Amino acid sequence: MFAETKSLNEECGVFGIWNHPDASRVTYFGLHSLQHRGQEGAGIVSGDHLALRGYRGLGLIAEVFKDSQNLTNLTGSRAIGHVRYATSGNNSIQNIQPFLFHFYDMSVGVCHNGNIINAKQLRKELEEDGAIFHSSSDTEVLMHLIRRSSKTTFEEQLKESLCKIKGGFTYLLLTKDCLYGAVDPNSLRPIAIGQMKNGSYVLASETCAIDTVGAKFVRNVNAGEYVVISEQGIRVESYTKDTMISIAAMEYVYFARPDSDIAGVNVHTARKRSGKHLALECPCPQADIVIGVPNSSLSGASGYAEQSGLPYEMGLVKNQYIARTFIQPTQELREQGVRMKLSAVKGVVEGKNVVMVDDSIVRGTTSLRIVKLLKEAGANQVHVRIASPPLLFPSFYGIDISTTSELIAANKSLEEICQYIGADSLGFLSEAGLIDAIGLSFDAPYKGLCMECFNGDYSAGLYDYEKDFFANLTPIQLAHLEKRRKALV
Ligand code: AMP
Predict the structure, then answer these.
(1) Helices (H) and strands (E) in the chain — how many of each?
(2) Nearest CA to ligand 1 atom 22
(3) Is cis: bond before 222, omega within 30 of 0?
(4) Which residues line ligand 1 (CB under 6 A)?
(5) Dihedral, CA atoms, 277, 414, 250, 474, nearest 10 degrees?
(6) What is the pLDDT of residues 104-136, one digit of tens each?
(7) Are 176 and 47 in contact (CB under 8 A)?
(8) What share of the chain is helix, strand, coil (3-state, %, to 5)?
(9) Atom of ligand 1 at shortest distance to CA of 359?
Protein backbone atom coordinates (compact mmCIF):
# COMPACT_ATOMS: atom_id res chain seq x y z
CA MET A 1 0.00 0.00 0.00
CA PHE A 2 1.22 3.51 -0.80
CA ALA A 3 4.42 2.18 -2.34
CA GLU A 4 4.70 5.48 -4.18
CA THR A 5 4.64 7.46 -0.96
CA LYS A 6 7.56 5.56 0.42
CA SER A 7 9.88 6.39 -2.42
CA LEU A 8 8.95 10.05 -2.69
CA ASN A 9 8.82 11.43 0.83
CA GLU A 10 11.62 13.70 1.82
CA GLU A 11 12.27 15.74 4.90
CA CYS A 12 15.39 17.78 4.42
CA GLY A 13 17.24 20.89 5.47
CA VAL A 14 18.19 23.79 3.23
CA PHE A 15 20.53 26.71 3.77
CA GLY A 16 21.47 29.63 1.52
CA ILE A 17 23.69 32.68 1.77
CA TRP A 18 24.22 35.79 -0.33
CA ASN A 19 27.26 38.04 -0.34
CA HIS A 20 29.81 36.51 2.00
CA PRO A 21 33.53 35.97 1.24
CA ASP A 22 33.29 32.44 2.71
CA ALA A 23 29.83 31.55 1.43
CA SER A 24 30.36 27.80 1.08
CA ARG A 25 32.02 27.50 4.50
CA VAL A 26 29.17 29.36 6.21
CA THR A 27 26.77 27.08 4.34
CA TYR A 28 28.68 24.08 5.66
CA PHE A 29 28.21 25.36 9.23
CA GLY A 30 24.54 26.09 8.58
CA LEU A 31 23.98 22.61 7.21
CA HIS A 32 25.76 21.14 10.20
CA SER A 33 23.09 22.57 12.48
CA LEU A 34 20.38 21.20 10.18
CA GLN A 35 21.91 17.73 10.09
CA HIS A 36 19.07 16.34 12.26
CA ARG A 37 16.77 16.93 9.25
CA GLY A 38 18.60 14.45 7.06
CA GLN A 39 21.70 12.33 7.15
CA GLU A 40 21.73 10.46 3.89
CA GLY A 41 23.38 12.98 1.64
CA ALA A 42 24.51 16.56 1.46
CA GLY A 43 25.78 19.08 -1.03
CA ILE A 44 26.59 22.71 -1.72
CA VAL A 45 26.42 24.82 -4.87
CA SER A 46 28.36 28.07 -4.76
CA GLY A 47 29.31 30.77 -7.20
CA ASP A 48 29.68 34.36 -8.22
CA HIS A 49 28.43 36.57 -11.05
CA LEU A 50 30.34 34.44 -13.57
CA ALA A 51 29.70 30.77 -12.76
CA LEU A 52 28.22 28.22 -10.36
CA ARG A 53 29.91 25.05 -9.14
CA GLY A 54 28.82 22.25 -6.84
CA TYR A 55 29.83 19.24 -4.83
CA ARG A 56 27.60 16.61 -3.25
CA GLY A 57 27.87 13.16 -1.78
CA LEU A 58 26.27 10.45 0.33
CA GLY A 59 26.40 10.64 4.13
CA LEU A 60 26.68 13.34 6.78
CA ILE A 61 27.89 16.80 5.80
CA ALA A 62 31.21 16.21 7.61
CA GLU A 63 31.71 12.97 5.65
CA VAL A 64 30.83 14.55 2.30
CA PHE A 65 33.39 17.32 2.87
CA LYS A 66 35.95 15.16 4.70
CA ASP A 67 38.48 16.27 2.13
CA SER A 68 38.37 19.99 2.89
CA GLN A 69 39.64 20.73 -0.62
CA ASN A 70 36.13 19.93 -1.86
CA LEU A 71 34.86 22.84 0.21
CA THR A 72 37.76 25.11 -0.66
CA ASN A 73 37.01 24.53 -4.35
CA LEU A 74 33.52 25.94 -3.85
CA THR A 75 34.54 29.55 -4.23
CA GLY A 76 32.23 32.52 -4.64
CA SER A 77 30.23 34.84 -2.43
CA ARG A 78 26.90 33.03 -2.62
CA ALA A 79 25.83 29.46 -1.98
CA ILE A 80 22.97 27.10 -1.32
CA GLY A 81 23.21 23.76 0.48
CA HIS A 82 21.10 20.79 1.36
CA VAL A 83 21.05 17.88 3.80
CA ARG A 84 18.92 15.07 2.60
CA TYR A 85 16.71 12.53 4.27
CA ALA A 86 15.38 9.90 1.92
CA THR A 87 13.65 6.60 2.29
CA SER A 88 14.98 3.28 1.05
CA GLY A 89 15.63 2.69 -2.63
CA ASN A 90 16.00 6.36 -3.34
CA ASN A 91 19.41 7.18 -1.96
CA SER A 92 21.56 7.20 -5.06
CA ILE A 93 24.00 10.00 -5.71
CA GLN A 94 21.84 11.34 -8.60
CA ASN A 95 19.21 12.30 -6.03
CA ILE A 96 21.55 14.21 -3.73
CA GLN A 97 21.02 17.96 -3.89
CA PRO A 98 21.49 20.76 -4.73
CA PHE A 99 21.05 19.95 -8.40
CA LEU A 100 23.09 22.12 -10.70
CA PHE A 101 21.62 22.68 -14.16
CA HIS A 102 23.68 24.21 -16.95
CA PHE A 103 21.68 25.67 -19.83
CA TYR A 104 22.99 27.52 -22.88
CA ASP A 105 21.89 30.84 -21.40
CA MET A 106 22.21 30.33 -17.64
CA SER A 107 23.06 27.96 -14.77
CA VAL A 108 20.74 27.27 -11.84
CA GLY A 109 21.35 25.49 -8.56
CA VAL A 110 18.20 24.18 -6.88
CA CYS A 111 17.38 22.33 -3.69
CA HIS A 112 14.10 21.33 -2.17
CA ASN A 113 12.61 20.28 1.13
CA GLY A 114 9.22 18.59 1.18
CA ASN A 115 7.09 16.55 -1.14
CA ILE A 116 5.22 17.54 -4.29
CA ILE A 117 1.91 15.73 -4.31
CA ASN A 118 1.15 16.28 -8.00
CA ALA A 119 4.69 15.37 -9.14
CA LYS A 120 3.57 12.18 -10.86
CA GLN A 121 0.99 14.03 -12.92
CA LEU A 122 3.34 16.91 -13.72
CA ARG A 123 6.14 14.50 -14.69
CA LYS A 124 3.81 12.62 -17.00
CA GLU A 125 2.73 15.84 -18.70
CA LEU A 126 6.31 17.08 -18.97
CA GLU A 127 7.62 13.78 -20.35
CA GLU A 128 4.80 13.67 -22.89
CA ASP A 129 5.99 17.11 -23.90
CA GLY A 130 9.54 15.85 -24.44
CA ALA A 131 11.19 16.46 -21.05
CA ILE A 132 13.89 13.99 -20.02
CA PHE A 133 14.37 13.55 -16.28
CA HIS A 134 17.81 12.96 -14.86
CA SER A 135 16.88 11.72 -11.37
CA SER A 136 13.91 10.16 -9.59
CA SER A 137 13.63 13.21 -7.32
CA ASP A 138 10.67 15.60 -7.59
CA THR A 139 13.03 18.54 -7.49
CA GLU A 140 13.68 18.43 -11.21
CA VAL A 141 10.00 19.05 -11.93
CA LEU A 142 10.30 22.71 -10.94
CA MET A 143 13.25 23.22 -13.27
CA HIS A 144 11.42 21.68 -16.22
CA LEU A 145 8.41 23.89 -15.55
CA ILE A 146 10.61 26.98 -15.41
CA ARG A 147 12.36 26.15 -18.69
CA ARG A 148 9.05 25.53 -20.46
CA SER A 149 7.46 28.74 -19.23
CA SER A 150 6.72 31.38 -21.87
CA LYS A 151 7.30 34.25 -19.41
CA THR A 152 10.24 36.46 -20.21
CA THR A 153 12.12 36.83 -16.89
CA PHE A 154 13.41 34.06 -14.63
CA GLU A 155 11.42 35.49 -11.73
CA GLU A 156 8.16 35.43 -13.71
CA GLN A 157 8.93 31.89 -14.90
CA LEU A 158 9.57 30.83 -11.30
CA LYS A 159 6.32 32.41 -10.08
CA GLU A 160 4.30 30.72 -12.80
CA SER A 161 5.93 27.34 -12.08
CA LEU A 162 5.43 27.55 -8.31
CA CYS A 163 1.70 28.02 -8.92
CA LYS A 164 1.57 24.64 -10.69
CA ILE A 165 3.21 22.72 -7.86
CA LYS A 166 1.08 21.31 -5.05
CA GLY A 167 2.12 19.98 -1.66
CA GLY A 168 4.52 20.99 1.06
CA PHE A 169 7.74 22.53 -0.18
CA THR A 170 10.49 25.00 0.22
CA TYR A 171 12.90 25.69 -2.61
CA LEU A 172 16.19 27.49 -2.69
CA LEU A 173 17.44 28.49 -6.14
CA LEU A 174 20.72 30.11 -7.00
CA THR A 175 21.53 31.80 -10.29
CA LYS A 176 24.62 33.91 -10.88
CA ASP A 177 22.54 37.03 -10.17
CA CYS A 178 20.06 36.04 -7.48
CA LEU A 179 19.27 33.79 -4.53
CA TYR A 180 15.60 32.79 -4.29
CA GLY A 181 13.71 31.03 -1.50
CA ALA A 182 10.07 29.93 -1.92
CA VAL A 183 7.52 28.49 0.49
CA ASP A 184 4.37 26.50 -0.36
CA PRO A 185 0.91 28.14 -0.12
CA ASN A 186 0.25 26.49 3.26
CA SER A 187 3.62 27.21 4.83
CA LEU A 188 3.92 23.50 5.52
CA ARG A 189 7.70 23.60 5.27
CA PRO A 190 9.49 26.60 6.77
CA ILE A 191 12.16 29.07 5.60
CA ALA A 192 13.51 31.79 7.86
CA ILE A 193 15.57 34.80 6.75
CA GLY A 194 18.55 36.00 8.78
CA GLN A 195 21.15 38.73 8.40
CA MET A 196 24.80 38.60 9.40
CA LYS A 197 26.79 41.50 10.87
CA ASN A 198 28.46 42.17 7.50
CA GLY A 199 25.01 42.52 5.92
CA SER A 200 24.97 39.07 4.24
CA TYR A 201 21.54 37.47 4.08
CA VAL A 202 20.99 33.82 4.98
CA LEU A 203 18.00 31.55 4.39
CA ALA A 204 17.47 28.40 6.43
CA SER A 205 14.93 25.66 7.13
CA GLU A 206 15.23 26.41 10.84
CA THR A 207 16.22 29.39 12.93
CA CYS A 208 18.83 27.27 14.76
CA ALA A 209 20.98 27.49 11.61
CA ILE A 210 20.61 31.27 11.57
CA ASP A 211 21.84 31.41 15.17
CA THR A 212 24.70 29.01 14.47
CA VAL A 213 26.20 31.19 11.77
CA GLY A 214 25.90 34.28 13.98
CA ALA A 215 23.09 35.89 11.99
CA LYS A 216 20.06 37.70 13.35
CA PHE A 217 16.55 36.52 12.56
CA VAL A 218 14.82 38.95 10.20
CA ARG A 219 11.49 37.28 9.33
CA ASN A 220 9.93 34.10 8.01
CA VAL A 221 9.05 33.54 4.38
CA ASN A 222 5.31 33.02 4.73
CA ALA A 223 2.72 30.93 2.89
CA GLY A 224 2.82 31.52 -0.86
CA GLU A 225 5.77 33.90 -0.65
CA TYR A 226 9.21 33.93 -2.19
CA VAL A 227 12.24 35.98 -1.32
CA VAL A 228 14.70 37.37 -3.89
CA ILE A 229 18.16 38.47 -2.80
CA SER A 230 20.49 40.16 -5.25
CA GLU A 231 22.90 43.06 -5.54
CA GLN A 232 19.79 45.26 -5.55
CA GLY A 233 18.92 44.08 -2.01
CA ILE A 234 16.17 41.87 -0.65
CA ARG A 235 12.49 41.64 -1.62
CA VAL A 236 9.73 39.35 -0.37
CA GLU A 237 6.90 38.82 -2.87
CA SER A 238 3.85 36.58 -3.21
CA TYR A 239 3.46 34.17 -6.09
CA THR A 240 -0.10 33.32 -5.06
CA LYS A 241 -2.78 34.83 -2.85
CA ASP A 242 -4.53 31.47 -2.59
CA THR A 243 -2.97 30.60 0.75
CA MET A 244 -4.01 29.07 4.04
CA ILE A 245 -1.53 28.75 6.85
CA SER A 246 -1.07 25.16 7.98
CA ILE A 247 2.36 24.59 9.51
CA ALA A 248 3.30 20.91 9.92
CA ALA A 249 2.59 19.99 13.55
CA MET A 250 5.26 17.28 13.25
CA GLU A 251 7.92 20.01 12.95
CA TYR A 252 7.11 20.95 16.55
CA VAL A 253 6.52 17.37 17.72
CA TYR A 254 9.64 15.72 16.35
CA PHE A 255 11.60 17.20 13.48
CA ALA A 256 12.85 20.62 14.43
CA ARG A 257 15.62 21.31 16.90
CA PRO A 258 14.45 22.53 20.33
CA ASP A 259 16.36 25.79 19.95
CA SER A 260 14.51 26.68 16.74
CA ASP A 261 11.47 28.96 16.58
CA ILE A 262 8.73 28.23 14.06
CA ALA A 263 6.22 30.99 13.39
CA GLY A 264 7.49 32.68 16.53
CA VAL A 265 6.95 29.64 18.78
CA ASN A 266 10.01 28.03 20.31
CA VAL A 267 10.07 24.28 19.66
CA HIS A 268 11.27 23.32 23.17
CA THR A 269 8.54 25.45 24.73
CA ALA A 270 5.87 23.85 22.53
CA ARG A 271 7.12 20.37 23.48
CA LYS A 272 7.26 21.22 27.17
CA ARG A 273 3.70 22.53 27.05
CA SER A 274 2.66 19.32 25.24
CA GLY A 275 4.14 17.35 28.16
CA LYS A 276 2.18 19.47 30.64
CA HIS A 277 -1.07 18.95 28.74
CA LEU A 278 -0.30 15.24 28.58
CA ALA A 279 0.13 15.09 32.35
CA LEU A 280 -3.31 16.70 32.77
CA GLU A 281 -4.97 14.45 30.18
CA CYS A 282 -3.22 11.18 31.08
CA PRO A 283 -2.03 11.35 34.69
CA CYS A 284 -0.21 8.47 36.34
CA PRO A 285 -0.77 8.65 40.09
CA GLN A 286 1.18 5.46 40.83
CA ALA A 287 4.40 6.75 39.20
CA ASP A 288 7.62 7.54 41.11
CA ILE A 289 9.61 9.26 38.35
CA VAL A 290 9.29 10.70 34.84
CA ILE A 291 11.89 10.03 32.16
CA GLY A 292 12.17 11.11 28.54
CA VAL A 293 13.54 9.41 25.46
CA PRO A 294 16.56 11.43 24.37
CA ASN A 295 16.64 13.77 22.62
CA SER A 296 13.37 14.81 21.05
CA SER A 297 11.14 13.98 24.03
CA LEU A 298 13.21 15.43 26.87
CA SER A 299 11.32 18.73 26.67
CA GLY A 300 7.96 16.90 26.80
CA ALA A 301 9.09 14.76 29.73
CA SER A 302 10.22 17.81 31.71
CA GLY A 303 6.79 19.37 31.15
CA TYR A 304 5.03 16.17 32.28
CA ALA A 305 7.16 16.03 35.44
CA GLU A 306 6.66 19.71 36.24
CA GLN A 307 2.90 19.48 35.83
CA SER A 308 2.52 16.26 37.80
CA GLY A 309 4.95 17.20 40.56
CA LEU A 310 7.00 14.04 39.98
CA PRO A 311 10.82 14.00 39.86
CA TYR A 312 12.26 14.34 36.36
CA GLU A 313 15.05 11.79 36.04
CA MET A 314 17.62 10.63 33.52
CA GLY A 315 16.49 7.07 33.00
CA LEU A 316 17.89 6.65 29.50
CA VAL A 317 21.22 7.63 28.03
CA LYS A 318 21.77 8.17 24.35
CA ASN A 319 24.90 7.36 22.46
CA GLN A 320 25.26 10.72 20.68
CA TYR A 321 27.27 9.25 17.85
CA ILE A 322 24.51 7.16 16.28
CA ALA A 323 22.30 8.72 13.63
CA ARG A 324 18.52 8.63 13.93
CA THR A 325 17.03 5.14 13.76
CA PHE A 326 14.71 5.96 10.89
CA ILE A 327 17.67 6.34 8.63
CA GLN A 328 18.10 2.58 8.48
CA PRO A 329 16.27 1.22 5.47
CA THR A 330 15.12 -2.10 6.93
CA GLN A 331 13.20 -2.97 10.09
CA GLU A 332 15.98 -5.32 11.25
CA LEU A 333 18.60 -2.57 10.95
CA ARG A 334 16.26 -0.10 12.65
CA GLU A 335 15.90 -2.42 15.64
CA GLN A 336 19.67 -2.83 15.79
CA GLY A 337 19.90 0.96 15.62
CA VAL A 338 17.64 1.39 18.67
CA ARG A 339 19.79 -1.05 20.67
CA MET A 340 22.98 0.79 19.85
CA LYS A 341 21.40 4.13 20.50
CA LEU A 342 19.91 3.90 23.99
CA SER A 343 20.81 2.43 27.39
CA ALA A 344 18.75 2.41 30.58
CA VAL A 345 20.24 3.88 33.78
CA LYS A 346 19.78 1.01 36.21
CA GLY A 347 20.44 3.03 39.37
CA VAL A 348 17.63 5.41 38.41
CA VAL A 349 14.87 3.07 37.28
CA GLU A 350 15.42 -0.03 39.43
CA GLY A 351 12.36 -0.80 41.57
CA LYS A 352 10.56 2.34 40.32
CA ASN A 353 7.22 2.92 38.65
CA VAL A 354 8.37 4.90 35.65
CA VAL A 355 6.48 7.28 33.33
CA MET A 356 8.33 7.12 30.03
CA VAL A 357 7.46 10.07 27.77
CA ASP A 358 8.15 9.92 24.05
CA ASP A 359 7.17 12.42 21.39
CA SER A 360 5.47 9.94 19.07
CA ILE A 361 4.93 6.31 18.16
CA VAL A 362 5.27 5.43 14.49
CA ARG A 363 5.84 1.70 14.09
CA GLY A 364 6.18 1.01 17.82
CA THR A 365 9.78 -0.22 17.52
CA THR A 366 11.29 2.39 19.85
CA SER A 367 8.64 2.07 22.59
CA LEU A 368 8.76 -1.72 22.53
CA ARG A 369 12.52 -1.74 22.83
CA ILE A 370 12.63 0.91 25.57
CA VAL A 371 9.96 -0.69 27.71
CA LYS A 372 12.00 -3.91 27.50
CA LEU A 373 15.24 -2.06 28.31
CA LEU A 374 13.67 -0.40 31.35
CA LYS A 375 12.17 -3.64 32.65
CA GLU A 376 15.47 -5.47 32.12
CA ALA A 377 17.10 -2.68 34.16
CA GLY A 378 14.70 -3.42 37.02
CA ALA A 379 11.85 -0.93 36.52
CA ASN A 380 8.79 -2.11 38.39
CA GLN A 381 6.17 -0.61 36.05
CA VAL A 382 6.58 1.33 32.81
CA HIS A 383 3.78 3.73 31.85
CA VAL A 384 4.20 5.11 28.36
CA ARG A 385 2.93 8.62 27.65
CA ILE A 386 3.11 10.06 24.15
CA ALA A 387 3.24 13.86 23.75
CA SER A 388 1.25 13.84 20.50
CA PRO A 389 -1.91 12.11 19.25
CA PRO A 390 -1.73 8.66 17.60
CA LEU A 391 -0.19 8.82 14.10
CA LEU A 392 -3.13 7.44 12.18
CA PHE A 393 -2.44 8.69 8.66
CA PRO A 394 0.57 8.82 6.36
CA SER A 395 2.14 12.16 5.56
CA PHE A 396 2.19 13.28 1.95
CA TYR A 397 3.86 16.60 2.58
CA GLY A 398 7.42 15.55 3.15
CA ILE A 399 7.64 13.86 6.53
CA ASP A 400 8.52 10.21 6.43
CA ILE A 401 5.52 8.96 8.32
CA SER A 402 5.80 5.97 6.16
CA THR A 403 3.00 3.83 4.80
CA THR A 404 -0.32 3.10 6.48
CA SER A 405 0.61 -0.56 6.91
CA GLU A 406 3.58 0.46 9.08
CA LEU A 407 1.64 2.92 11.26
CA ILE A 408 0.82 0.92 14.35
CA ALA A 409 -1.99 3.28 15.42
CA ALA A 410 -3.73 2.91 12.04
CA ASN A 411 -3.92 -0.83 12.59
CA LYS A 412 -4.18 -1.47 16.33
CA SER A 413 -6.36 -0.11 19.14
CA LEU A 414 -4.87 1.68 22.16
CA GLU A 415 -5.07 -1.51 24.22
CA GLU A 416 -3.44 -3.55 21.45
CA ILE A 417 -0.59 -1.05 21.10
CA CYS A 418 -0.09 -1.06 24.86
CA GLN A 419 0.10 -4.83 24.82
CA TYR A 420 2.43 -4.86 21.80
CA ILE A 421 4.96 -2.53 23.41
CA GLY A 422 4.66 -4.33 26.77
CA ALA A 423 3.77 -1.21 28.76
CA ASP A 424 1.74 -1.18 31.97
CA SER A 425 -0.35 1.65 30.58
CA LEU A 426 -0.35 3.90 27.53
CA GLY A 427 -1.73 7.37 26.90
CA PHE A 428 -1.57 9.84 24.00
CA LEU A 429 -2.06 13.60 23.97
CA SER A 430 -5.35 14.63 22.31
CA GLU A 431 -5.50 16.63 19.07
CA ALA A 432 -6.97 19.62 20.94
CA GLY A 433 -4.23 19.26 23.57
CA LEU A 434 -1.48 19.41 20.95
CA ILE A 435 -3.01 22.41 19.16
CA ASP A 436 -3.34 24.23 22.45
CA ALA A 437 0.15 23.30 23.59
CA ILE A 438 1.86 24.50 20.40
CA GLY A 439 -0.12 27.68 20.81
CA LEU A 440 -0.33 29.19 17.32
CA SER A 441 -3.14 31.69 16.97
CA PHE A 442 -3.73 32.04 13.24
CA ASP A 443 -7.21 32.49 11.91
CA ALA A 444 -7.12 29.11 10.17
CA PRO A 445 -8.18 25.51 10.88
CA TYR A 446 -6.34 24.04 13.89
CA LYS A 447 -5.07 27.58 14.65
CA GLY A 448 -2.67 27.30 11.70
CA LEU A 449 -1.34 23.76 12.14
CA CYS A 450 -1.35 20.90 9.68
CA MET A 451 -2.62 17.86 11.56
CA GLU A 452 -2.68 15.52 8.53
CA CYS A 453 -0.90 12.59 10.24
CA PHE A 454 -3.21 12.76 13.23
CA ASN A 455 -6.58 13.40 11.66
CA GLY A 456 -6.31 12.81 7.90
CA ASP A 457 -7.13 16.44 7.09
CA TYR A 458 -4.74 17.13 4.22
CA SER A 459 -4.65 20.92 4.01
CA ALA A 460 -2.93 21.02 0.60
CA GLY A 461 -5.06 18.23 -0.90
CA LEU A 462 -4.04 14.76 -2.04
CA TYR A 463 -3.70 14.89 -5.85
CA ASP A 464 -1.55 11.88 -6.99
CA TYR A 465 -2.32 10.10 -3.71
CA GLU A 466 -6.09 10.53 -3.55
CA LYS A 467 -7.20 7.31 -5.23
CA ASP A 468 -4.83 5.10 -3.25
CA PHE A 469 -5.62 6.89 -0.01
CA PHE A 470 -9.38 6.37 -0.17
CA ALA A 471 -9.07 2.83 -1.53
CA ASN A 472 -6.85 1.61 1.29
CA LEU A 473 -8.21 3.11 4.49
CA THR A 474 -8.07 0.82 7.52
CA PRO A 475 -11.14 0.44 9.77
CA ILE A 476 -9.42 2.62 12.40
CA GLN A 477 -8.72 5.36 9.83
CA LEU A 478 -12.27 5.17 8.50
CA ALA A 479 -13.71 5.48 11.99
CA HIS A 480 -11.53 8.53 12.67
CA LEU A 481 -12.53 10.25 9.42
CA GLU A 482 -16.17 9.55 10.21
CA LYS A 483 -15.76 11.03 13.70
CA ARG A 484 -14.22 14.17 12.21
CA ARG A 485 -16.97 14.40 9.56
CA LYS A 486 -19.65 14.21 12.27
CA ALA A 487 -17.89 16.84 14.38
CA LEU A 488 -17.95 19.20 11.37
CA VAL A 489 -21.68 18.74 10.72
P1 AMP B 1 8.89 3.97 16.03
O2 AMP B 1 10.03 3.34 16.72
O3 AMP B 1 8.74 3.47 14.62
O4 AMP B 1 7.60 3.91 16.78
O5 AMP B 1 9.24 5.50 15.87
C6 AMP B 1 9.06 6.36 16.95
C7 AMP B 1 10.31 7.11 17.24
O8 AMP B 1 10.81 7.73 16.05
C9 AMP B 1 10.04 8.18 18.24
O10 AMP B 1 10.96 8.03 19.29
C11 AMP B 1 10.20 9.49 17.51
O12 AMP B 1 11.02 10.36 18.23
C13 AMP B 1 10.83 9.13 16.19
N14 AMP B 1 10.06 9.67 15.02
C15 AMP B 1 8.81 10.12 14.98
N16 AMP B 1 8.47 10.52 13.73
C17 AMP B 1 9.53 10.31 12.97
C18 AMP B 1 9.81 10.53 11.59
N19 AMP B 1 8.90 11.03 10.76
N20 AMP B 1 11.04 10.21 11.15
C21 AMP B 1 11.95 9.72 11.98
N22 AMP B 1 11.74 9.46 13.29
C23 AMP B 1 10.55 9.76 13.78
Answers:
(1) 20, 24
(2) 326
(3) no
(4) 254, 293, 296, 324, 326, 358-367, 399-401
(5) -150
(6) 999 999 999 988 999 999 999 999 999 999 888
(7) yes
(8) 40, 25, 40
(9) 12
Residues with catalytic roles: 12
Q: State how far the Cα of 171 lies from the Cα of 244, in Å rounded to an integer.
A: 18
Q: Measured in angstroms, how far is the CA atom of residue 300 from the centroid of ligand 1?
A: 15
386's enclosing H/E stretch is strand 381-386
User: Ligand 1 centroid to 84 CA: how many Å?
Assistant: 17
What pairing do the DSSP bridges indicate for beta strands 381-386 and 353-358? parallel
Rounded to 5 degrees, φ, ψ at 487 are: -65, -30
Dist. CA 471–CA 178, nearest whole Å: 45
Which is the closest atom of ligand 1 to the Cα of 297? 12
Closest CA to 43 of 98, 112, 100: 98
CA distance 317 to 220: 35
What is the position in ligand 1's atom list of the atom closest to the CA of 361?
4
pLDDT at 92: 79
The verdict on whether residue 367 carries a ligand-binding annotation is: no
pLDDT greater at residue 88 or residue 174: 174
> 389 near 483, Cβ under 8 Å?
no
358 assigned ligand-binding residue: yes
pLDDT tops 70 at residue 93: yes
Answering whether pTM is above 0.90, one says: yes
> What is the distance between the alpha carbons of residues 423 and 416, in angstroms, rounded to a whole number?
11
For 443, other C-beta atoms within 10 Å of its C-beta total 8
